[in-house]
């Protein structure tokens, strides 16, 4: 079985690359830090005799040979890039648990039927190049290679240029190798497992998500002499929208409706000027596609009502839609069997966050394994998962992987 | 009577100093542009034989001798500094109408009983050095000279340093000369006169204003996996506060309650992160001090309710309070008589905005004259008042001033 101490050591060693001030990591996609993290992993895998291939968008495939190398491999992995002030586990755990699985198999001289591929997907976070999960999406054919290479960071550097600078512009055609299955271990990034005292989440799918850019245009005016009745206050209108949608989501006792407003910006803000223009981002999520449709209809209705109530013009653009994902039954069951075998409490659950597994699941049987993270916090330097939970997750990964690779 | 064409020409000539791209003016307090504007005014006044004195915070007093120069003078004026993208009338009109009054008196060889002082108050806008009206406040003894000289702009330059650079650090003791009266002509900066087809506002006082800096602290968390019930969303809480107070103000059929939220900032905003911290500015106004107290109590109560409803911690600091001002009855009546004499519709009204007259009224009998501005817009390059209204306002100023100076 898994060496939890060894896994923890690799996690902590990786966290030393691009360390951030408060104990987290700073390895934005395809920066020198990200490249150094990748090189460390390659070194570790080469020591196990794995071979490396890199595709045209920088996805790395580290292959451990099987008995039947003519068969499509089973993939395991996640991402090594982090948020600007990210944690030590988001993504990294899925990759280094894969490494630990390889090491454990080596320790016991086990060779699987199918070959295995430890996969590192490029730029999962979307912090440097938007959107998130862009390289696994390209692998799955959702985005074209050209469009992905042309995505720019804030400084105008393209993803293609960053690949060339770091040397991770490989020659493996994007979409290869075809995978006979894919398993991703990840921290939950939410509080459900911890709150319920459960050690493993058997992930059955991923909720649908839709992103919108909203603009509200009223009329800037002086806060003092402008009567309430004459105002066209873009921020007051925006507050109404947020409050209504928030109340709607909170009223859903199933807890499946989620609305988040992450960014709000006033144009030329000034303490004594009525805001004339506000830009808002909206993130709608639901585990049922039809309910997500209904949520979007309600959002549109609340937005439209602002024109009458506040005299503002509204515009909304849907910039991303990721449909509800149902993972492969065979893979889910393999994860559930492996979880049950540990004798710990677990739950079947939908993922609230998008992961590379979302896109990979379009082209290969896929599922995921969650472990709890402290206070449900991630995308934060304070992100933490216990060594015990990390080891447990890796053990479930090992057993599910063995089942799928020896089918 | 006033030469409206000459007044308009001086307004347009002043607007040429620090012109802004869309037809407004850019003369932040004590910048080279502001200094150039002041020098142009000084030149115009010297041609009339006025004498200049500058006090220790840069307030300029341009004196036109009277028959009894042993008596305290009557002041007239406003400010020449503008917002970063300001208009051509806010402040400037009050100063150049004073100049036009002096010129008209010269044309007719009129010498008033009391001497007159054309006053230019430093840094009324508060855009470069906060708060607004700081130098008239220092003149009135509300702020100490030391504290005013030590106020810093964004680049760390103190008001005292800016005075020295521009050469407007005068040696007249702050608080001198004592004024026997003060009259300020200003654009309304709101829509009331225009909407009601009235040409003059006889300003009876200024509504009370209170400014607050509010911080809401919740918990940043991932938008996807965090159930609504676990969230401590600082922005959702903030939206509730805004919506409640806005609805409260709108429900006041007297129209006297005003609430404005000019600035809202999320700490480390990200599209898929629940906002953990929000900073908000609040501007509360009312024409009755007791009602303003009640409004503040309600604001505190709504703020406190957020802790229970959203699990956020709240903090609020009152950073400025300007009590309701009642202008001097004698001065108001003089303005009303002069307005009635024009044969145009006028109204007695409270000012919604703060003006230098607010602080001057603490140490001298004071009132103000408003004229309409197009669409009620100011603090904006599009700010506009017609030549006819400007001339009419200056005529009222002339007649009220003559009455007060010859008492
Ligand atoms: N895991 C993760 O943060 N994915 C980004 C997309 C999302 O917001 O769910
Ligand atoms: N006139 C003016 O803009 N004064 C600034 C203070 C206020 O907000 O009323």
From TrEMBL, chains A, B:
UniProt keyword annotations, A-Z: Hydrolase
GO-annotated molecular function: hydrolase activity
UniProt keyword Hydrolase, yes or no: yes
Endpoints of the signal sequence: none
UniProt cross-references to Gene3D superfamilies, sorted A to Z: 3.30.70.360, Zn peptidases
Protein name per UniProt: Zn-dependent hydrolase
A Pfam family reported for this protein in Swiss-Prot or TrEMBL: Peptidase_M20
All copies of domain Peptidase M20 dimerisation, residue ranges: 205-305
Family: Belongs to the peptidase M20 family.
